[in-house]
Amino acid sequence: MISSHFTLPPRPEALGHDALRHHAIHLGRDYRIDSVPGEPLLDGNFGVDVIEEELVLRHAAIRNRHRMSNHAEMMPGLKLILFMAGTVDVRFDGRPMPLASERPTALLVHLREAATFERHALAGTHEFSLTLTLSPAWLQTSPETARLLDDLPHLGLRQWQPSAGLLTLARTQLSTPRAADDFSTRLRREGLALTMAGEGLAPLLRTSDRDSRETRQQRRLWDFIEGGSGDTKTLTEIAGHLNMSVSTLQRLSQQRYGMPLQRHLRQRRLDAANRALQDSHVSVSEAAELAGYNDATNFATAFRRTFGITPRQARERQR
Asked: Does the predicted model carry a pTM greater than 0.85?
């Protein structure tokens, strides 16, 4: 399901295997696409641009024509992801990124070492996103950013809050046809990249007084939930395990995920059911059980509301 704020650019470009491989040169190595051979794979506005040395911006306002999986090895660095809308499964070293389909999600991901990258998408789904890659060499240009490489673990995740101005710049970029690549457009794209870098790194560059008890609680909750330990637990059980109150869980979840914790856990379970329907040949009833639904009708309603298709359609597309 596409947000009402997003539509594909007019006269969307069709991109095939060769075009995607060309763009992937700037992002990693050993790039591979698993999809229908010899046909256009995407419609829309897609590109990868080197803004300045060691600073690379990927922008996508696309519709997936076919079910497809993209694989590559990513080099070390920081990834700033601004996921505006759509439905896609993105993973680093097998770890899924918590990308909300109904609102902008802003994540910082640290690749301390080379990591595998996976992107899985169904036919007919959309993606509206920006990803800025900051290389270790770029981060070493100042003492403040160089310290980030020491403080963050491999696959360390942080959420950051994009400003209204940055969201406006992002929407403008994603709605601008790729063909309109003149000097003015490139300047705006450079401004967008530097604004993303400034806002995405700002929470990590603040003084240590922000690393308070609540910040440590946020990290404990993040690691517990994103590691999958809370998928089958109630809020009370999670609160007891983390030695927090339920109200603290809800407040931290709102800050971290932008939604109540029950809703985030439900979204995680639906994502797991969707992946199982695509990749594991499970039945719809088995997927419903995986998502925590006793009633298949309620499961189908929630699934369609989230992904824009029914569970049966997802399973048939897999076939």
From this structure: no
